[in-house]
Design a protein that fits this description.
6 copies of one chain form a homohexamer.
Chain A lengths: L1 E6 L4 H14 L5 E6 L3 E2 L5 H18 L5 E4 L7 H7 L4 E3 H9 L6 E5 L4 H11 L6 E6 L10 H20 L3 E4 L7 H5 L7 E3 H15 L17 E2 L3 H7 L8
Parallel strand pairs in A: 1-2, 1-4, 4-5, 6-7, 6-8, 8-9
Helix pairs in contact in A: 1-8, 2-9, 4-8
């Protein structure tokens, strides 16, 4: 199985974290391709940054998706996920959606632990757009300004664990979701410190991608996830144009 | 007052429809700037096409917004609306949101009449994202394949009126929303044929933009619509970079 | 354009506040008629007081609405709004609904700042009845007993600003709604003190009324906002009977 | 036990239907007082007519409630119910609410069978205001214009039964609610013709009033159903003023 | 009238509390049969314990229901309620549902006061399953470990009253529901200490059972509460098999 | 990896279908134990039958779960799922929940195709209890009475495919869920006949169980999915008692 991991941000250090956790989570025979946004911001906290990230995801998917069995959009908030699902012939998985679908099978209500206050509104809207808002009891966040996003795990591990414990004891969370690609891999390090299951976005996305590839349900030819109807376009990059062209991207 | 009208699609004929209806709807002293997407598709029906459109909106806003009092994103589905609202210092209005906020004051439950079956899912998700899903009783759509999007009003006027009547009599709509920039201006032509108020997206956006400019509430300095926190970026166009730069865009 | 402003309460001092803010908000050529309830209570805090206020609104509308382009029900909680919309041939706007529709275009989630604890339940039910409950993050209220409702702005300005700041920082409000006709005009005085847009009910109602008049969508002849079916009645005042009589009220 | 039955409409023939069904439903020792609106319309189909009816309910309650153990507002849609509950010291029951609370214990999802198309919107909003909208699968209505509201049971019995059967077989209703005081008593006549439990508003209101009197939970001294805070008023009828005066109405 | 009271737990002391409060609440001529689970746990706090309790309820209902007019499942959380309603020919009432339906007619928003923290999640899911989640403002619970469940009223009366007051003043509850069969009868003792109506599960269930028996609506022959379609079964106890057999249980 | 597959019904032929599809879906090294309910009904269509099935699930889990890595409750409607998740130390997966979590990552809105009309209400309540009701557009069902549940795939394949196509074209389903263990394996046979992805419960449960085992998140020690607090019990079978005993069941 071949998975394409798309980091919608420009942070190469975060791509490394993503790839390492994906490697730890994937089945032995799975090959991974990890790519980094050629343009964009250091990390996505807002809707406008997500707009930029979604554009980078399209560019990377159009360039690299062919020959893979599934694609992972490796940022929380899942920029471009529903859009890419229309134009790619293989399963497309997002960190938030995959984490929610995993967490949903481990308990009933969950909390998201996030790396900044600002990021919370975007995460909440993402959860609500999946119809899972009634199961989200809280989003708790670090309050310090972020400096080195690639080193945030080390710098703030204790603070993140404390927030997770509060979410369990004060908010009634059955499951904790550690949110954000910069936290990739932290869940397996801190799980012994927490009294409820802890879910990581990257590993959830990898196991869910594997699950969907195994189900092998085929792609939509009708309905709202079929390829967009043919129509004139202009000025698109070759990568984006390939996504709109029937057969432009081939699954493995 | 100066309004920037952004057509997120490449159809110059639709830009002309938008500008003409905006002219009919605006107060006498209002100046209009209408711009067309430099890249993209002929019209947006799907989430992926909306991703492309949102990117074009950002490009156009970064280039043209300075010196205007408000910006109108002139496509139904409001591509990029919430994102632009974070980075522009003036009100940003979308056709769908403005139509819903107008329709909401004319009745309780509304139906959307749309130009294609495929477009319905995207519209529904847009309405739900505004928390107005409980007031949407139906989306009814033309079932023929679209040919000339700039001439759809003439070609399908009768069909659209018939759908609207069905929405009133079978679905219980109190208000009809004629959806899609290609239908700009149709509402004022057909209102005598329909038994309930009919709302047009472009005219709603213009009057709502005027309303927000009159309220003059100032922009968010905190909360989830403040400008994104400063952080490294790379590879962005000058227009998009201007949107991220404090003071990069100036209101009039 | 001629607007009728109906104060559903007996407080003449509040009518003056309403009229002054309406004058500041309206377009130059707009004429205003402000009327005060001939019976009722000093200000509405509860459902029963709203029942009385709704009755006064009907009386005033039946007496004064003819010859106006739109009617504003100038109390938060919008007593009688949906009822009047059935029987008046011109747009009818309520302070709460207009404020929500304006606030909804400036951010995603809003808080209401209110003048008494007791008033909160009635406001919440009003917001929920419009389907906007998912966007209301909090209602924060003054806790002191109210004395002179016409002077509450001066007496409690600092407290109201403090509540609004808490709503932004603790509740996550993107927009603040200053609720209650007695606060008419306060928003424009305190907006520099608050980090997010602040919406006032009276000015919102005026600009929304202007917007609806400009849209000129016509009135409902079918559906749930058409005039009530003819049927016997008895004992009604001349004003209320006029509302039930076809053509009893004429728009300008 | 003494129950006050308030008909918010002017139809004396409907008051007779209400009283007869209440008599059939009440415990042997229960005394009934049935009163008819001194002003208003023949029957309530719309929000504006409900506004008038709510005003009549207040007038009648202020005049007649003293000395009763509970009050029944005997129109579907429950005009004035929440308002009266603030000012009366005894339980106040509405036909719709009581029917829903009874139906809710006989099945999960219910349909309302109504006497006119127009009446449906008002009923739906009433059900939704009680938070029970998710359990309402349909409202089905007679489509003929109503003539003699006091004779509608005889004239339309077959049509109403047919609508109820459709609601069970096509909409999935577990319980049928026959709506409207003019149908009082029909449920017990047609229950053998229907395959699911059938609930009548008047009998539900009577048994629920008896249930609440038996519970004897006392009235609210705080919270949103306590009496309105004292404040100036003017121009109110003696009956309405009595409702606002502490101790103005005495339970038995 | 004959009511069967089923305690789904093995605590004979709680059965005594249930029966005593039912006796105080029932009409004079009502006969009560109170039975205790032959297997199970001391009290139900969790979903798994509720599964066991539901099984005991089925066993007891199959053995004892014949000859009664209604059945009360006398544990909060209503284990087995919807299931039993399919197979019993008489009304089946649960403590939670009956308390909510009573509370719903005394105010708009309610809080549940519970005897343990752990029990809260199960209660919340129960309330939400009835579609009443929007009216539940809080669940407040004792935090001490439970020892003698039959003596919890005496041991924790003050703490429970304090929680109820907090629910009114901090959470905005209009009505208090004292939850759990071990609190049967406490409401009538503490109602003078609380500023809003207080609802007890056992007395609510009794008066609601009486109300449903009085309505005499007949049982479902179609829809989702009709008896399960005939099909092979094996290994069931005689009591459970009787529930599945047409005519296996007879109402009085 | 060792999976325990629990058929909550007594139909050995269905257990064989479940095991065969699980074998086709599982990774090569996965060992399967399939067990059949020792008591119960032929197949579950109603809430009461689900109560019986949940009891059988507890019995089987208490007897067989030790030594497995995950447990699959192999009936649609997931009888006992949330309850077992409290008492088992390994992941517990249900057919419905797993299918929804898989379907949720393949599209936005889904339809369930079911084997009987009666079964629909129970399925709908199950979906709603997971908070996914807003994504369910329809349940379509065979209308013929069921005879041989083990042979239903062959007998009704064409009818099921026709229902699925209607769900796509008339209801707007993006994904089809073929519901019920008796349909295990049908999805892979008919997927070429359907225009959208088709999800099977058994294969979804197997791949989701594998995903959760791979995530290895540990079990809840606090919150609402921790083991029930210790308390007296009596009369329980050895299997159920083992589930309540700390360490009574051991993961592999």
């Amino acid at each position: 199985m071949r998975l394409l991991l798309i980091n919608p941000n420009i942070s190469v250090s975060v791509t490394a974290l993503i790839e390492a956790e994906a490697r730890r989570s994937a089945q032995p025979g799975t090959a991974l391709t990890a790519v980094t946004a050629p343009f964009g911001v250091a990390y996505i906290e807002t809707r406008f940054e997500a707009l930029i990230g979604a554009s980078a995801v399209a560019e990377l998917a159009g360039t690299h998706a062919s020959g893979h069995d599934a694609v992972v959009i490796a940022a929380f908030g899942d920029p471009g996920l529903m859009a890419l699902r229309e134009v790619l012939p293989m399963p497309v998985v997002g960190l938030t959606e995959a984490a929610l679908m995993s967490a949903g099978q481990l308990g009933r209500r969950f909390s998201i632990i996030a790396i900044s206050q600002r990021i919370g509104a975007w995460y909440r809207e993402c959860v609500e757009s999946y119809g899972m808002g009634s199961r989200l009891v809280s989003i708790r966040s670090l309050s310090q300004p972020l400096r080195d996003v690639g080193a945030i795990q080390q710098a703030h591990c204790d603070g993140l664990v404390a927030l997770a414990r509060q979410a369990v004891r004060e908010d009634g969370a059955d499951v904790i979701v550690l949110a954000g690609a910069p936290l990739a891999g932290l869940a397996r390090q801190v799980k012994a410190l927490l009294p409820v299951p802890v879910v990581d976005g990257v590993s959830s996305a990898v196991v869910q991608a594997q699950a969907l590839v195994a189900l092998n349900t085929g792609r939509a030819m009708e309905g709202s996830f079929a390829a967009p109807p043919a129509k004139p376009h202009t000025g698109l990059s070759a990568a984006v144009a390939a996504l709109l062209q029937p057969g432009g991207i081939q699954t493995r």
